[in-house]
Structure formats: C-alpha cells, structure tokens
Amino acid sequence: MSESAKKIRAGILGASGYTGAELVRLLALHPHVEIVLLTADRKAGQPIADVFPHLATTDLPDLMAVDEVEWPGLELDVVFCALPHATSQEIIKGILHATGHGFIDEMIIESPSDYANAIHGSVKVIDLSADFRLRDQDVYQKWYGDEHRAPELQKEAVYGLTELNREDITRARLVACPGCYPTAALLTLVPLLQSRVIAKGNIIIDAKSGVSGAGRSLKEANLFTEVSEAMHPYGIAAHRHSPEIEQELTKALGEQVYVTFTPHLVPMNRGELETIYVQYADGKTVADLRAVLEEQYADDPFVTVAPEGVVPATRQVRGSNHCVINVFEDRVPGRAILVVVIDNLVKGSSGQAIQNMNLMFGLEETLSLEQLPLFP
C-alpha cells in the first residue's frame, strides 16, 4: 500500500475490554489505519480516555452503543469484534450477509442483527471471540451450551493462527482468531506433529496465564484478594480451549489427536507460559524436535526458538507480539519438555488480530507490531 493510498477505516466492537484497549493501543500508530468507530455498550458516551487513561493522547471517537451507531456513511473496511462468545454471531452474520453494494441512506438500527442492512458486504471481519473457531456445530453446542446462529459462516471462517495459515488468511473475509492458550500450544505442537517427530498420544499441556485473560468484567474470583499471592487451576478437564487445540492438531496430523490440558490463573496482569510434555516418535531425539522448530520459524518475525538451555519466561515477551519456544530433554526416557511464552493480550489476541489484518490487506505483516517486549 502506497503512502498516498486511502487509509483502512476500522471499527472496534467491544473497545472497553482488555483486548479492545490493546487493539486501540496498537492500531493508533498504524500508518495505514484510521479508527473511525468504537463501541462499548456499558461505557457508551464516554471518551476512550475516561475508560483507559493510558490512551488519552489518541484522537479517537467516543465510545458508542451498537444500537446508537449511524451506520450509513461509515464505509468501514475492517471490523474487529472483541466481544464475548455468543455475542458476535448475529453481528458478524449481519455484516457479512449484507446484500447491497453500498450503505443504505436511511436505516434504523434497533438490534445487532440490523447490521445486515447497514454495512457494505465487502467489509472484512476479524473476530477475537470463540464464536467461529470451532468448525463442527455439534462441538460448538457441546462446549458453549447453545446452537450456533450463523452455521454457514462457521464453515467459512478461516482459523487465524497467522504463522501456520497465512495463505488462507490472505484470502479471507472472516477470520477467527485463536484463543490465547491454543495460540501458544499450536505454534509449538503443530510443526512437530506434522513432521512426525513426536507421538500423538500422551501430550500434556500445563498452562498458566495472567488475570487479564479472564476479561474485564466484574467477577468475585478475579478480585485482588482472591488472586494475589496464590495460584490455582481452573476448567480442569473441561476448558473450552481443549476442543480448539484438538481440532487443529487433528487437522495437522490427519488423524484424531487428544490432549490433557489444564490452565492455571497466576497473580500477574498479563503473560502466558505453557509447559508441554510430549513423547518422541520412534527413533527421534530432542535434536530432531529442535531442528523442526528452527526450520519452521527461521523466517518468522515473531516466533523465536531460544538457544539451547535458555528457559523462556513471560518477561521476554511482555507487551509484544513475540512468542519464544524452547525444547528440553526429559529425564524420563523417550520424552521431551517444551516451554513456550506469549503475551496473552498481544500475540494471544489483539496483536495476532492485527497481524492477520495486515495480511488481509496486503500489508507488511509486522506493521504496528514492531515494539519490543517491556522489561522490567
């Protein structure tokens, strides 16, 4: 895109959450993007500076409720949906099912589903919720408790794990960004399974995330006194990211893969670390695993395989779109230990979403994501 080209007009739905704030922070300095819409029903009418003082220097529109938006004339090019699961489906269905070739001059928006008559059909959508990650409708209903209300789009959505799905993302109009836990797990495991250097059985993912991964809504379990000076597992054998991880590993291998996945909440604001235990395929060694990962990510700007013996830590990626992986030989014969770290709000969510947007619009993949990790 040339310097003189028209800027991409972006809308962020759910801008008052943590992922919404990260989208604003990262996109505010994007050379080819103009943020023209911010919605947040509970904070409607407020300037972004009142909700997030750290964004006070940005010149952005005030937050609006969805049903108060005057859609005609917005001419959005991309919409980021940073909304809870089950909320995005009808909104996105409306966006992508629009039948006109422009904006209707007069339209009353009474509900999210009225997007269908208000938004140009060529707009691209990047969903940060779980609504379009799972391809099987029955699996979605089992894990999220309700029928999917846009099943035809569920089949169309491209899974937005950038490094492993660039070609499809480039052609997509709807991208479903992975969850933060699946992002770290899949970047580590998919190349190893595809290269058949590890066995498909006995994969154990021990995951830990900062409190921001639970969202910004008020929950007793997330109060300071509840999480400070403590750590606890949750969603044991029942976390919704399990079927997402298994779906993508099964696709990569071409046969069913199951994992043992247990997430933990740790008393820090942001960051994610996964310790993954795997079994070698017959005749393979830790050197084979390292070679596969180094070859896979040799030219990737954001995924790094650490030098031998260096243990990845969340401080190495905080505030950045980077992912650091390393592999160690277990003392138990035939097994290896993989350690991977990301920032759950950036590479695990908003940063990856922007990385996907760059691909969808033919831009440099790294634009607005070049910042180095923050330390201390």
Automatic annotation (TrEMBL):
Reactions listed under catalytic activity = N-acetyl-L-glutamate 5-semialdehyde + phosphate + NADP(+) = N-acetyl-L-glutamyl 5-phosphate + NADPH + H(+)
Subcellular location(s): the record lists: Cytoplasm
Specify whether RNA-binding is a keyword of the entry.
no
Q: Where is the Semialdehyde dehydrogenase NAD-binding domain?
A: 9-172
Record-linked SUPFAM superfamilies: Glyceraldehyde-3-phosphate dehydrogenase-like, C-terminal domain, NAD(P)-binding Rossmann-fold domains
Any GO BP annotation: L-arginine biosynthetic process
- Tell me which GO cellular component terms the UniProt record holds: cytoplasm
Give the EC number(s) listed in the UniProt record: 1.2.1.38
Q: What is its main location?
A: cytoplasm
User: Could you tell me the superkingdom of the organism this chain comes from?
Assistant: Bacteria
Task: Please verify whether the record's keywords include Amino-acid biosynthesis.
Answer: yes
Q: Can you provide one Gene Ontology molecular function annotated for this UniProt record? A: N-acetyl-gamma-glutamyl-phosphate reductase activity
Q: Which InterPro entries match?
A: AGPR, AGPR_AS, AGPR_dimerisation_dom, AGPR_type-1, NAD(P)-bd_dom_sf, Semialdehyde_DH_NAD-bd
For this protein, the record's NCBIfam families field holds:
argC
What's this chain's function? Answer: Catalyzes the NADPH-dependent reduction of N-acetyl-5-glutamyl phosphate to yield N-acetyl-L-glutamate 5-semialdehyde.
Q: Family, per the entry?
A: Belongs to the NAGSA dehydrogenase family. Type 1 subfamily.
Please give the name of this protein.
Answer: N-acetyl-gamma-glutamyl-phosphate reductase
| Encoding gene (name) | argC
